[in-house]
Write a structure and sequence with these properties.
With about 180 residues, this protein is mainly α. It has 2 domains: about 90 residues, no CATH class; about 70 residues, no CATH class. Helix 2 crosses helix 3 and helix 4 packs across helix 5. Pfam families: ABC_trans_CmpB. InterPro entries: CmpB_TMEM229. Keywords: Membrane, Transmembrane, Transmembrane helix.
């Protein structure tokens, strides 16, 4: 959203595409690093794609982000702002509160779900209620392959095998709430 707000002030379309593509590519690269090193999993690997940048983003995807920014800034955002101005002022605060609550809930639920997904891929089995159900709340709605036997393309590494993050001790991370699955 910050990218779109910043791009509103750019008057030339090609500049919006260029800056939006660079910002989108940098954000995609940074999020990939953060997910891998903080949460222990990696959702995408572009190592086999042409013009990839460290396997974390590609120039064609950066072009896509730029074009998407252009469409949002020039067409979708003006429509949304027009619709927002049609809403009565008493509803602005209510809707903003609902959206803020939604974003806060998502930001609390998603990182643990991603972390637990990475731990499950390493063979950890969790026996507490939170760890067993957090994946059902978050990841099943956004990723159809939450199990250890995931075979979708987004979870395959450069060799065609299923990506598994580097092994970490789930027992140390969760103490008595995790145990390693039997081999």
């Amino acid at each position: 959203m910050a990218i779109v707000i910043a791009l509103r002030r750019i008057d030339r379309g090609w500049k919006v595409v260029l800056v939006g593509g660079l910002a989108g590519g940098m954000l995609e690269f940074a999020m990939s690093l953060i997910q891998q090193y903080l949460l222990g999993s990696r959702s995408w690997n572009y190592a086999n794609e042409p013009l990839n940048i460290g396997g974390r983003t590609t120039v064609p995807f950066m072009l896509f982000w730029g074009l998407l920014c252009y469409l949002i800034v020039r067409f979708i955002l003006p429509l949304v702002l027009w619709l927002v101005h049609l809403i009565d002022d008493t509803w602005h605060t209510r809707l903003a509160t609902i959206l803020l609550a939604w974003i806060l809930i998502d930001s609390v639920v998603t990182p643990p779900a991603i972390f637990l997904y990475g731990q499950r891929a390493n063979g950890a089995v969790f026996d507490n209620w939170f760890a067993q159900h957090i994946g059902q709340l978050s990841m099943t709605t956004s990723c159809a392959c939450i199990s250890r036997t995931c075979a979708c393309e987004s979870h395959r590494g450069s060799s065609g095998t299923i990506y598994r993050p580097p092994a970490r001790s789930a027992v140390m991370a969760y103490g008595r709430h995790a145990r390693l699955a039997p081999s």
